[in-house]
Amino acid sequence: MNLKQLLKTPLKALGLSLCLGASIPLMAATLTIGRANEPQSIDPLFSRTGNNQMTAIHIYDRLISTDQNVRTQPGLAERWENVNPTTWRIYLRKGVKWHDGRDLSAEDVLFSMERAPNVPNSPASFAGSVSSINSMTIIDPHTIEMTSKKPDPLFINNIGTIYIMPKHIAESAVNADYNSGKAAIGTGPYQFVEWLPGDRLVLKRNPNYWGARPAYDEVLMKFISNDAARVAALLSGSVDLIDLVPPSDVQMLRKDPRFSVHQVASVRLIYLALTQRDNTPLFTDSAGQPLSQNPFQDSRVRQAINLMINREAIVDRVLAGAGEPAGQTVPEGVFGFDTSMGPVQPDLAKAKALLTEAGYPNGFGLTLFGSNDRFSQDGEVTQALGQLLSRGGLKVNEVKTMPYSVYAKEAGKGSFPAFVFSYGNSTGEASRGLLSMFHTYDKDGTGHGTLNRFRYSNPTLDALLVKAVQDFNDASRETKLQNAMAIAMQDAAIVPLYFQSVSWASRADIAFQARKDERTLAMGAAPK
C-alpha cells in the first residue's frame, strides 16, 4: 500500500489506533514530519528562502552540498579545481539520472546557471549566486570550465547554491507545472508525489539515487504553522517529527520518555530591517499625520532604534533562552566574525538624544511588520519589539504579522517600513551575507544586494566588500570582512537582534541530525 492509499484508508481498516506504540511497526517505512512553514513553489529556483530550499533539496541536487555544520562537500560535482584565479574546472559525477530516467549532463548545469537569475516573479532571486560567472564552456558531457569576472575565492560556494534542473523539462515549464508535479523532476533522494498547498507534501524514495540511501521509503510533510498544534500533533502520534519546537515546550518534551529533542545553535540571524527607500508608506508624525520624508534614511535614527532594543530581554523572556544576542551578522566562530563587536546595549537616553539631533524630538509613528510562522516565536518577537520601540519614544501605530508565504513577497517589494526578517548563513563565512544584504541593490548589473530588501546604500562599504570577496588570502580576506562588518553595524544598516537556537522533537525511536542551517531534512532522520 502506498502513502496516498494509506492517507485515504480509515484507521480501523488498517488496525491502527492513535496509540503511539501501536503505530510504530506499520509506519516504519513512512516518516511524517510536521513542518512550521511550506514552500512558495516546488520550482527550486523560484526563491532562495529557507522554506523553499529545504523542500527543494529533497527533490533536487546542487553541485556541492553542505553537512550539518554548513561545511562544503561534493554534490553533483564530484570534484573541482582552480586552474587560475579566474578559471575553474568542474567534474560531474557519472551515472547520475533524473527521476525520469534520463542522464544528467553538463548542458543541464549550464541551463540551470542561466535560468537562476531569470525566474519570473521570484521574491528572493538566486541572481547573486551566479553574478560572478563570466563564461561557461562544456568540455565534455561531464566536464565544465567556468571563468569568473574577477578573482573569486568563493566562486564554487556561490554557484554551488544553484539547484540543477533538467534542461529537457525546465526549458518549457512554468511555475504551475512544478507545483502540479509535471515538471518536478530532479536527481535528488526523493521524488515528488503530491503537493496540496496549506496541507501536505508527499514524496517517495528515489530508487536510483546516486548518494546515500534515505532511511524512509515515503515522506509526508504536514504543514502546521501553529506552534501549539504542531506540538499537539507530535504528542498525539499523528506526526513522527516536528521542527521549530517552541522554547516553552522544549523542557516538557525532554522530560517525556516517549520523545527526543534535537537542538543546535544556529547561524540564522534575526534582525530588524529599516527600509530606506523613498516614498515608503506608513510613517507619521507624532500627531498621526503622514511624513513626507523617510526617517530611516538618517543613520542617527537607525542608531537610535538600535539603542532602544533590549536583546537580553527578548532572548530570556520571549525565547525562554533559546537564542544568543547578536551584534553582527555571523556568530562567534564563523569566518569574518569580529571579536571587538558585541551586541549593542540599550541606552534610551542616548537614543532620545540622537532622535532629537536628527529632527525628531517627539519621535514619529510607524507600523511594524513581522511573520508569524517562519521561525520560533516570530510573531511574539515582533510584538515585543513594538513595545521596546514605544518605550524608546516612537509611536508604534500598529504591529502586523502574517504568514511567511505572503510576508516574504511583500517585504521583497518594499511594502513595509520596518520589518523583522532573518538571514541564514549557508556559506560558512560572512562574505556572502555581507555582499547580498549590504551592497547597494543592483538588479540589472552585478547581482549584488539581492537580499538588500531595505535598500541600504554606502559606496565606501560597496567598494570594500567587492575587494574582500576577491581576496584569495584567507587572513587578509577575513580582515576586510571584519572592517566591512564594522562599517555596516556602526551605520546601523540593519538592527541585529539574535541568533536563534533551533529545536526539533521526534518520537524517541527516531534519530535525527540537527543542522546549523536549520533545514528539516527527511534524509537526516532514521529509526534508531
| Mean pLDDT, all residues | 90
Give the CATH topology of the domain at 267-500: Dipeptide-binding Protein, domain 3
Question: Mind telling me which CATH architecture of the domain at 267-500 this is?
Answer: Roll
CATH superfamily of the domain at 267-500: Dipeptide-binding Protein, Domain 3
The number of helical runs is 19
Describe the global form. Answer: globular
CATH class of the domain at 267-500: Alpha Beta
Strand content: 15-25%
Structural class by helix and strand composition: alpha+beta
- How many beta-strand elements? 20
Low-confidence stretches: 1-28
Task: Tell me the distance between the termini.
Answer: 24 Å
- For this structure, the quaternary state is single chain
Radius of gyration: 23 Å
The main pleated sheet reads as: 12 strands, mixed
What share of residues is helical? Answer: 25-40%
Secondary structure blueprint with pairings:
Layout: H1 3-8, H2 11-14, H3 20-23, E1 30-35, H4 50-59, E2 64-66, E3 72-74, E4 77-84, E5 87-92, H5 106-115, H6 127-130, E6 133-140, E7 143-148, H7 155-159, H8 167-170, H9 175-180, E8 190-196, E9 200-205, E10 218-223, H10 227-236, E11 241-242, H11 247-255, E12 259-274, E13 283-284, H12 299-308, H13 311-318, E14 323-325, H14 348-357, E15 365-371, H15 378-391, E16 395-402, H16 404-412, E17 418-424, H17 431-438, H18 459-468, H19 474-490, E18 495-507, E19 510-512, E20 525-527
Parallel strand pairs: 1-10, 1-11, 15-16, 15-17
Antiparallel strand pairs: 2-3, 4-5, 5-7, 6-7, 8-9, 9-10, 11-18, 12-17, 12-18, 13-15, 14-18, 19-20
Helix pairs in contact: 12-14, 17-18, 18-19
